[in-house]
Amino acid sequence: MKVNKAVFPAAGLGTRLLPITKSIPKEMLVLVDKPLIQYGVEECLSANISDIIIITGRGKTAIEDYFDRSIEHEILLKEKGKHHLLKSVDEISSRINLTYTRQKEALGLGHAILCAQNMIGEEPFAVVLSDDIIDSDIPVMKQMIGIYKNYRHSVLAVQRVKDEDVSKYGIIQGREIGKGLYAVEDLVEKPDLSDAPSNLAIIGRYILTQDIFGFLKDTKPGKGGEIQLTDAIRSLLSIQPIYALEFEGTRYDGGNKLDLLKAQIIYGLKNQETRSGLIDFITSEGLISAAKAPGGGV
Known about the structure:
By secondary structure, the chain is of the alpha/beta class. Helix content is about 35%, strand content about 25%. Helix 3 (about 70-80) packs antiparallel against helix 4, helix 8 (about 210-220) crosses helix 9 and helix 10 (about 255-270) crosses helix 11 (about 275-285). The relative contact order is 0.15.
């Protein structure tokens, strides 16, 4: 069965990026000229997934407003003859079918996915975490869809992480069956390094079969008192194969201030409007001297 739908959990509080996330959803933080969530939506479109389900929470209305039509902007841009800007505003909204639902309690990623069950039905579906920014020649979801088409079972995106970061992620134990492709044998959520089966961490891209919902309902709160998606996937493994793809691309953690700054530079260099000016700025003698100065201030 084809993957037609993608779930975007967007009810989290974004505490790592406070104070800005007190008033702006982390999914709406700007990367060059678009909010983080739009990059994830465009990644889904590259894999021919256009039904987008966004799990929101209190204080997240900015996401709905962004993807809604803005008649005022349309009229203003038409009057000023700025048709290229009008196209950029309208294009993404016209290509997707959006549905929203609320996660009324902060009970974790697994619970957020469970909130989408009625809209998923009996279909496989994708999950995208917007704060995982992945720069790749072939969009990661498109890479994963290729694996799903071959195996017809759940696929997880994984990446090798440093030893000191293992305890921050769900970690897989896997048997390599192809270049960068693993048959998952076990998973553990945020293990201590001494208990970790590998350093292959699950990153915020998933393709899951509808069977996950039964296990999510039965999953007890784990670390942090939350319903962990990794725990439910581990239970799913008891009845069907699961695969993990060590994807091609560079991932930036959009919830980490330093990684977000790195992504701004990388994506700024890819943007034709900002590339030359940014190169001039970061290679200027004054800036380099300032960066080398005590404190590294610019």
